Amino acid sequence: MIRINENYTRLKPSYLFSEIANRVAQYQSENPGADIIRLGIGDVTKSLPPACINAFHKGVDELSCDSTFKGYGPENGYAFLREKIAGEDFHKRGAPIDADEIFISDGAKCDTGNFQELFANDITIALPDPVYPVYLDTNIMAGRAGNAKNGRYENIVYLDGTMENGFIPQLPSQPVDLIYLCFPNNPTGAVITKSRLQEWVAFAKEQKALILFDAAYEAFITDETLPHSIFEIDGARQVAVEFRSYSKTAGFTGTRCAYTVVPKECVAYTESKSEILLHPFWKRRQSTKFNGVSYPVQKAAEAVYSDAGKEQVKKRINEYLLNARIICDAMDDLQFSYVGGKNSPYIWVHGKGSDSWDFFDRLLTKAQIVCTPGLGFGQCGEGYIRLSAFNSLENVQTAMDRMKKVLA
Ligand code: MLT
Description:
By secondary structure, this protein is α/β, with parallel strands linked by helices. The protein folds into 2 domains: 8-47 and 308-407, Aspartate Aminotransferase, domain 1 (Alpha-Beta Complex), CATH 3.90.1150.10; 53-306, Aspartate Aminotransferase, domain 2 (3-Layer(aba) Sandwich), CATH 3.40.640. The chain is 38% helix and 15% strand. The chain has helices spanning 16-30, 50-63, 79-90, 108-114, 133-141, 194-207, 236-239, 247-250, 278-289, 295-302, 307-333, 356-367, 393-407, and strands at 37-38, 102-105, 125-129, 148-149, 152-153, 156-160, 178-182, 210-214, 240-245, 258-261, 267-269, 275-277, 338-340, 346-350, 369-370, 372-373, 384-388. It has a 7-stranded mixed sheet with strand order 2-10-9-8-7-3-6, sandwiched between helices. Strand 7, helix 6 (194-207) and strand 8 form a beta-alpha-beta unit. The chain is globular, with a radius of gyration of 21 Å. The chain binds D-malate. D-malate binds next to loops.
């Protein structure tokens, strides 16, 4: 008899963004003429930078000739990309990361979802609330979350984000083993200072815990005092793993390329409390279950670091940040409280007493705007919606005009 992994029965029936897509598709089928503007899922709308497209084409051409053809690539990704990453993303910011501590992958979603496989099933997980649903769902699948009671899982330590704490959660008041942090934050757009991040690193050290730090949105940081990487913090190499992505940075949501940094000093512990290095374990996991990102895609990602690539990426980020500013200005006009939008493509808006799915339905049916209901990111998201700046300037302006008419 084939038996199911019953942990799957503890999940909500559908993934947040699938549920939103279904509701929007239903509305669209009932209102075929509706001009829907999507400010929901954080999917980029601007083309890949020309520097990436050129490198992508060249990479494909190399595959057309036996003498330059590539089959399986190196397990951790091509050195040409890993060396650029180490130099440009880390050394230039004073973060001591070597090229062989970098693992190229097809997405931060997969890596943040898969990394928990390295750990025991009875560890305690600390998760911010609201949170990117992948961190919670993958721990539910693994059986670490326990049963849901009143919308929360009994074995998870929730780190509440509120307007009062600016959606920067406090350190847990109880021992925890694995901590998920994401800054600039998805969904709230909140950012963390170096000194606050230092407190998390010190806490992880004291607890012999590990921080999984998702920095997929670091390219949107405009305030130069803010850390782009947890490895800008002293001591983080022993207690943190970092996830990065080209999706939002350079428009690779469909192309797929990302990377994970596992420093060689980073450890977990056996039952008998001896230290085990995580780097060889993640390498072992990836070489067994993953076969790399295609050569042309890695060439396209390398081009992000060329002079032209840097300029083109910056232009796109600035265009999305301008959209974010237009959304923030509209929220100010409407006197909605919000966070985010300054160093982030997300604006997290308080619905003045509306529940978050009602607010979602109102925006969809009255203004033909898709947002993401805050409750989908956790209980602390109830009463909020997330607006994404990933769209054209024209669509964002139209959406804000519609919101002002409908909500004023
Ligand atoms: C989001 O909208 O939160 C993101 O697009 C999700 C993702 O990157 O997987």
